[in-house]
## 1
Amino acid sequence: MPRDHHFLIGGVKFLWRYTRLRGKAHGWTYHGEKVLIEERLQKRAKLCTEIHEFLHAANPNMSEEAVVNQSEDLSKILWALGYRQQSSEH
Ligand SMILES: [Zn+2]
């Protein structure tokens, strides 16, 4: 199962990687370079983290509070609308 992807975010090519992260963080964004997502996340927590890190990557100056609020709101909406990941996908 692929753990690495490459995505354009705001016209910049990012490595998007699922991996084991140290500490409490669920994700990290290194601006202009890469996004790391904790590989043990599942379900809405995973979706929320993916949106959260995308928002950081796309909006380097957005506050952490705004990123948290928007990723929570959007992941709740998408989850309520029935968006789910197939279990074998990353
Ligand atoms: Zn953040």
## 2
Amino acid sequence: MVRSDWVPQTVDVSVPSIARAYDFMLGGAHNFAVDREIALKIDRMMPGLRAGARVNRAFLGRAVRFMVDQGVRQFLDIGSGIPTVSNVHEVAQGIDPECRVVYVDRDPIAVAHSELMLADNDRAAIVRADMRDVAGILDSPQARRLLDLDQPVGLLMMLMLHWIPDEWDPGALVAAYRDALPAGSYFAASHVSADHAGRSMHRAAEMIKDSGSRDQMTVRSHAEVLALFDGFELVEPGLVGCAEWRPGGPGDVSDVPLMNMLLYAGVGRVIR
Ligand SMILES: C[S@@+](CC[C@H](N)C(=O)[O-])C[C@H]1O[C@@H](n2cnc3c(N)ncnc32)[C@H](O)[C@@H]1O
């Protein structure tokens, strides 16, 4: 296989990465045959998956705009992925150019492309890290330069926490971030669920496991995702299907009904 020059030497292009498969679903070009194969396999089982990815991105945009409206001017986006359209800094800085954003991802291609995109933006940067390294991320040069932890922060974990298995205790990880943030901060997350897709979602998780990807998906119920918001006060309408979280227009909703419900989405406020 010919390696493109945008592919870091350390990247194993024979196993899929969720960052690249998701890039494919959003119409991006930074993916390989293995990534497209797994995405298409799951899409054949649950047609409309690409619409689901777009519904998630639309929720991300609404959540960021909501937080900016609440006065938040700095963001920590964990599991930010390969840059696409309407990234967090574009949405937030589009409203107020003073907004600052720290992205975090463990995928080398997501990091390499984010670095390129942000080269001329002195108010946004990316940290390559596993989200479990809470102290390392918060103490990184990028976070120290861009985030003031005495001021409200918008913490985002979009389509992220289902990559954290129960044995890693995702609730404790979210709590560790929450405890580092001052009152008035917000947390937004979207998370896959099997509640509306029955066996298909579990089958998708098995397909990803069989693919050899290091990203392994844990499907959770509404109650389990809700528990990840412990210690936050959920803003209206609570934890709902992604397209049901304050939709503002037709672009926020899919005409494939399952894709509006496949992901749970919510925004919570840090209370003390
Ligand atoms: C499906 S993408 C979501 C991208 C973006 N947040 C969005 O919603 O459009 C999930 C991202 O989480 C990243 N990820 C998964 N597990 C991670 C971990 N333990 N630490 C950091 N990033 C992780 C993956 O590399 C991938 O880029």
